[in-house]
Amino acid sequence: MLVRVIVALSALAILTVVISAPVASYNLSCAIVGDSIAVGAGKYLRSCKLNAKIGIPSGAIIARIDPSADINVISAGSNDPDNPALDENLERIRERANRAIWILPAVPNAREAVRKVAARHGDPIVSFTPSRDQVHPQSENALAQAIDAAIARSVETAPDSG
Q1: What is the pLDDT of residues 119-144, one digit of tens each?
Q2: Cα–Cα–Cα angle for 104, 157, 110, nearest 5°?
Q3: Which of 49, 52, 85, 95 could be 39's S-S partner, Cβ–Cβ 3.0 to 4.6 Å?
Q4: Has residue 18 got a pLDDT over 50?
Q5: pLDDT at 11
Q6: What gap in Å lies between CA 26 and CA 45, rounded to an integer?
């Protein structure tokens, strides 16, 4: 019994270290903006300013972009995938950002729209394994780690990072 408790506590300690592992510090400023997917990942991206809201449609994300940030990590389209203005909203979002990393929605219509805008601008995308609801990430932490890696790659390729 004591051995099981020790093994369980050891596993919990390892899990806690993995889950709460800090993300890298960046030489560039970053903001994570958008919907509930951004809210969830943003909890783990403490080096980035978070400006996200649960349930927000793409049109409302435009004003949340931080034009002063070097990189905006954007989650948009999951709440209005059938909006006829989605493509236009995504373009307006992108116009406000210096550089962008897009979180690819799991919802097919929104996924395709985000993919097109990212491709037009040469922006990196980050995807995730969806949870049972087929909208949100199965693991917010795993998504945050993927975003962290994408930001690190962006820092390496930044014009000023000589």
Answers
A1: 999 999 999 999 999 999 999 999 99
A2: 10
A3: 52
A4: no
A5: 41
A6: 11
